[in-house]
Amino acid sequence: MGKESDLFQRAVIALSDSDYERAEKLTKELIDLDKKNVDAWSLLANIHKQSGEIEQATEAAKQATDLDPKNVQNWNNLGHLYLLQSNWEEGEKCYAKAAKLPNPSPTIYLNHAWALIELGKEKEAQQQLKQALDQALEDTLSETIATDDRYTKLRPLLKKI
């Protein structure tokens, strides 16, 4: 486990230094040692996301969810990658799964609402937004919706709630 831990830590440091090429290389070495390492797949998804390689990030995130389908954060990561690609249907599916897992965060419900509103499902989006507000510090979430352009279509729903 020492070599794997060392590779992981070095990859994280490389990512924090924005050395995406090195971070990717180290993470792939780690995956070569253990193809079922969920943390390595999640890290690889993050590396690709931060370097702007969204499709590659999505593939790595799929691996993480396949290996650990009960991890709400993995579904959140995959869902968010789909939303960044305007793939509302796949994003919605991910957030629907995440929302059924134990302890989903307000972000799960918020992004689920975002996917639903983009799919024209206003009533369902409003229900998810209400879930998000029920769990979050309302002022904080309301501020996020008011200032983040991704959530523009949710603003009228916020007023209804």
Describe the structure.
The chain has helices at residues 2-16, 20-33, 38-50, 54-67, 72-84, 88-100, 106-118, 122-135, 138-147, 155-160. Helix 5 (72-84) runs antiparallel to helix 6 (88-100). The chain is elongated. It has 161 residues and is mainly alpha-helical. 78% of the residues lie in helices and 0% in strands. The longest helix has 15 residues, at 2-16. The mean pLDDT is 95. The termini are far apart. It is built from ten helices and no strands.
What keywords describe this structure?
mainly alpha; 161 residues; 78% helix
Q: Write down the oligomeric state.
A: single chain
Q: Biggest sheet: strands, sense, closure?
A: none
String of helices and strands: HHHHHHHHHH
CA(first)-CA(last) distance = 50 Å
Radius of gyration (CA) equals 17 Å
Structural class category: mainly alpha
Total beta-strand segments? 0
Write down the overall geometry. Answer: elongated
Strand content: under 5%
Let me know the average pLDDT: 95
| Number of helices, counting only DSSP H or I runs of 4 residues or more | 10
- Helix fraction, binned, reads over 70%
Q: In terms of per-residue confidence, which ranges show pLDDT below 50 for 5 or more consecutive residues?
A: none
Concise account of the structure shown:
With 161 residues, the protein is mostly helical. The chain has ten helices and no strands.
Strand and helix layout:
Layout: H1 2-16, H2 20-33, H3 38-50, H4 54-67, H5 72-84, H6 88-100, H7 106-118, H8 122-135, H9 138-147, H10 155-160
